[in-house]
Amino acid sequence: MPLFSTDSTNVALTPCGPCAWLLQHEDHSLLTELSEAILENPPPSFIEPVLGYDTLLFHFSSPIPEETLRSHIRSLTVGSHSRQERSRHIISVRYNSPDLQEIADDLKLSREEIIQLHCAPTYTVRFLGFSPGFAYLDGLDTQLHLPRRSSPRTRIEPGSVAIGGSHAGIYTIPSPGGWNILGHTDHPLFSPEKNDLTAFTLKPGDTLKFQSVD
């Protein structure tokens, strides 16, 4: 179905410099589908879409009038990418982090309860951000919601499986970070040698489950 009706003036497009427009919308699944649709049928001078928490940035190599972009968006069809077409991932995790006992104490849960609660949901990749391929995962059990550490670490290893606020995530490269580390996975998540979108294992709209391994 078309994203906007003919009268789409109620949908805000905010300019971000001369060559980009930002769309904010509460339905993140719609933003994900629009991101895919505009990649399949891009307007002239289009570079890339960039998904955020509740936004989609349209990046161009040259200025584009707002009404030209609105008209192109209205011409796109979303809803053709069914959930069955999304990739599903199983991520094996060794829950052996030194943080685990501290997290258990903060949440007043046992280590075993934390692992069980972390493995139970099916997570959805909301968007990639912070560092290459780092996926913000919706679906974390509310009992595991925990603020980020007050003092971030200067280095966290790739494959570190973490929770922060209301999201789960996995670090893909060595980087600073303040999330709470639960364990580690050897699952390949980022292949920089590919130098395109196929470098990222996880993509917005994908689903995944964690499973505990020794």
TrEMBL record:
<dbReference type="InterPro" id="IPR010016">
    <property type="entry name" value="PxpB"/>
</dbReference>
<keyword id="KW-0378">Hydrolase</keyword>
<feature type="domain" description="Carboxyltransferase">
    <location>
        <begin position="11"/>
        <end position="200"/>
    </location>
</feature>
<dbReference type="GO" id="GO:0005524">
    <property type="term" value="F:ATP binding"/>
</dbReference>
<dbReference type="Pfam" id="PF02682">
    <property type="entry name" value="CT_C_D"/>
</dbReference>
<dbReference type="GO" id="GO:0016787">
    <property type="term" value="F:hydrolase activity"/>
</dbReference>
<keyword id="KW-0067">ATP-binding</keyword>
<keyword id="KW-0547">Nucleotide-binding</keyword>
<protein>
    <submittedName>
        <fullName>Allophanate hydrolase</fullName>
    </submittedName>
</protein>
<dbReference type="InterPro" id="IPR029000">
    <property type="entry name" value="Cyclophilin-like_dom_sf"/>
</dbReference>
<dbReference type="InterPro" id="IPR003833">
    <property type="entry name" value="CT_C_D"/>
</dbReference>
